[in-house]
Amino acid sequence: MHRSMRTRASRYIYPLFIGAVLISCDGQRQPEQQSLMEISKQELADAIEERDRLLSLVKEISAGMQQIRQLESVTLGKGGGAAEMSDDNRGVMSDLEAIKRTILQRRALLDEMETKLENSTINNKELHETLDALRMQIDSQMEEVEVLRRHLLRARSRIGDLHTSIDSLSIVVSEAEQELVAARDSSQKLEKHLNSCYYVVGTRQELKRYNIIDGGFLRKTQVLKGDFNSECFVQGDKRTLEMLPLNSRKAKLLTTHPESSYAIIDSSGMKYLKIEKPDLFWSLSNYLVVQVD
Fold it and tell me: Residue 24, class by beta-carbon neighbours within 10 Å (0-12 exposed, 13-18 middle, 19+ buried)?
């Protein structure tokens, strides 16, 4: 619709004054030609100036519509993602305001030209139709600008909502990460505790000195009874403790462990405790006491 309006405007204006100063081939002057010839030079100059201003206005309005189309492409051409814009949004809004001011200036100029046309000797139906077409284009441009302005305002509002949502989600994510770290730390501590084992290797005298065993020549030896010194135990991991060097030619286990879960082997004259089934070995106690002497 806008292109046809521009075509009509150009069709009406460009030839308007050209034929006015020509003489027909048979040497006879047409009535309109005779009328124009009688206009003073100053009036003709004024008419030509009005024509040029009208043509210039047509070009400006066409360029303004193209500029609006470009802004519309910026705001709507990102898959409807107006909420993705921030600085761009403000820049486009500023451009729209500038275009709106320009359109208002063009409308004022059109009103001025229309007033002059009413009192002009070149006042005719075709010029009025041209001015009407230009006014329709100006109104259309103003409507386009208003539509884009409302769209940008909605986008700006949505951007604010998204920023609020993002801030809230950031807080939630941060809290969740802290809880996850705390849970992971607790899990690791619990796993370490559940897989911890404690062992000590010593002579009878050493084990008695730390109250790990109790008993005498005529009394049954008791292991880990009463207040024993836990600092002499070495902490280990049930999952990785497979071979324990005893550094002695003699060794026996004083704590209770299923016999099928371990073996005492010799290597270079020294005893080693080989734990073959860790889960079964530690099923009765997390403590291991080995007497060597």
Answer: exposed
